[in-house]
Amino acid sequence: MRSLERHRDVGAYALGVLDEAESFRFEDHLMDCASCTAHVTEFGPATRQLMLYRRATPRSVHPMAGPGPRLLERLLGEVAARHRARRRLRRYAVAAAVALAVAGPGAVLLTGGGDGGGEAAVRVTATDARSGVWARVTGADETWGSRVEVTVKDAAGPRVCRLVAVGHDGSEETVTTWTVPGHDARPHTMNGGAALHPHEIDRYEVRTADGTRLVTLPSP
């Protein structure tokens, strides 16, 4: 497959419609293409909305059913709620930094005012002794699932990585994808989301593009 065709596959890959062979070839392309990696992350919200629509739509409803008269009002309300939640999350991050400085390494649980479903925001950290990768995940409940922030220290780049949320039922969702710079141990923060709510998530896993697990963070 030519390079230009690989760039064109970014949308199909993000939406999960490529077959296994094509997905493998595209993930190999992601290792060297920062532009496609960024585009995969940008497709995250659209992918989650389509997944939520599929779960919420009865089988008897036509897939091209028109929106109800209150759809715009609900969407505007959701956007406003997300803006409020982001401001609260920044305040929680400052408090968590103080807690981490006092408590030292290990898993830290941060509770605060939740949004959407009313659950508290939670934060957990972990370091894998084998890979040397350190990660911190902060999750907040939303009406549509979980809003997630992940910070990673990984000096073994360059490589493409992803954060996967694993449900109690064994289901998996890719929260966000990023490229690790070469030999850069500085923390890097990414944002994403999952259709699973916090109480439905068993653990988070940081994995490479080929599926190698780098660090596991049990969900509180």
Can you offer a commentary on this structure?
The chain has 220 residues and is an alpha+beta fold. The protein has 2 domains: 40 residues, no CATH class; 148 residues, Immunoglobulin-like, CATH 2.60.40. The chain is 35% helix and 29% strand. The chain has 6 helices and 8 strands; from the N terminus they run ααααααββββββββ. The strands form 2 sheets. A 4-stranded antiparallel beta sheet has the order 1-2-3-6. Strands 5-4-7-8 form a 4-stranded antiparallel beta sheet. The longest helix has 33 residues. The chain is globular. About 10% of the residues have low confidence. InterPro entries: Anti_sigma_zinc_sf, Znf_put. This is Zf-HC2 domain-containing protein. It comes from Streptomyces flavalbus. Keywords: Membrane, Transcription, Transcription regulation, Transmembrane, Transmembrane helix. Pfam families: zf-HC2.
Mind sketching the topology for me?
Blueprint: H1 3-8, H2 10-14, H3 20-30, H4 34-42, H5 44-56, H6 71-103, E1 122-127, E2 134-142, E3 145-153, E4 159-167, E5 172-180, E6 188-194, E7 201-208, E8 213-218
Antiparallel strand pairs: 1-2, 2-3, 3-6, 4-5, 4-7, 7-8
Features:
6 helices; 4-stranded antiparallel sheet; 29% strand; membrane; Immunoglobulin-like; Znf_put; 220 residues; alpha+beta; single chain
* DSSP helix fraction: 25-40%
Gross morphology is: globular
- What would you call the quaternary organization? single chain
Largest sheet report: 4 strands, antiparallel
Number of helices: 6
Number of domains: 2
**Annotated CATH architecture of the largest domain:** Sandwich
Q: What string gives the helices and strands in order? A: HHHHHHEEEEEEEE
Strand order in space, largest sheet: 1-2-3-6
Distance between the termini: 43 Å
The percent range for strand residues is 25-35%
Radius of gyration: 18 Å
Total number of strands: 8
Q: Class by helix and strand content?
A: alpha+beta
